[in-house]
Structures are given as structure tokens and as C-alpha cells.
Amino acid sequence: MEIKRNVNPFNNSVESGLRILTILNEAFPKSFDLQNLVYLDYLTIHSGDIDKTTNSLHPAVPYRSGEIMIRSSIIEKGLNLFISKKLIEKLYNQNGIEYKATENAMPFLESLEENYSINLQENASWTVNNFSNHTKQELKTIMTPKLTKIDNEFNIEILQ
Q: For the whole model, what pTM was predicted?
């Protein structure tokens, strides 16, 4: 008897965890809470939505702005996976729960040579350089008009 599993190779806990690890490594030794990581992850994946001079890591699918609402549980699973491998550290501080890369993160990430990993590192570097010092509210303010515009563009395409 064969057991079938629904395995999604995209946006699963391993891929999400790898993206978050890459972001945290680029920002090392800075730490972020889960909501900031959700925003930074979206910006890393869809950088072209915010800055047309950058290439998004993933394709521009319709209604991708909705990803932000469902992404936190997937990211949390990825965080826990990489915490168990001692690549991410969970911190309890005055800001609540935050996450940061450990010193083991860089050697691990440097061992990855696939094009996706290289592009991920470039996008994570762009995201950290441009957005890591913003508060959650500032990130939301930056992203909301862009995401609304994207959703409206797809709505207009559907109507035509």
C-alpha cells in the first residue's frame, strides 16, 4: 500500500526557513520578530514589486499580496527547523520574541552554490540594506500602496 503525501516544493518550511536564514545572515547580528521577518521575506521574494530595477526571486503571480497574510505560519515552521539545526537563535527580550542568525549560518549558506541560493542572497542583501531599519508600521506603509496597485492591475486584466 502506497502512502501519498502532498509535498509542495515551493514555499514550504525548508524553503521559507532558508530564505529567513539568508535574511538573518545578511542582517547579522541584528534580530527581528516574526512580523518583520514576514515583511522582509515578501520583499526578498518580490523585490521587483517595490523597485522595478531589481529582479524578483519568484514570478509575479496574481494576488500575491495575499501571501503576507498566510506566510507567518510557514515561516514559523521554517524558523523552528533551522533553530533545531543551530543555524537560527530564538531570543526573548524586551521586544518579545526575536530571531537572529547564529555564527554557523554563514558557513552553511556559503556552501550553497545553486542559482536560486545565489539570487536569494543578492535579494536578501538588497532587502536588508533598504528595509531592515524600518519598523513594522513603516514597512506596512511602504508596501500597502504597492500591493494595492499590483492587485488592481490584475483586477483590470481580468475585466479586459
A: 0.82
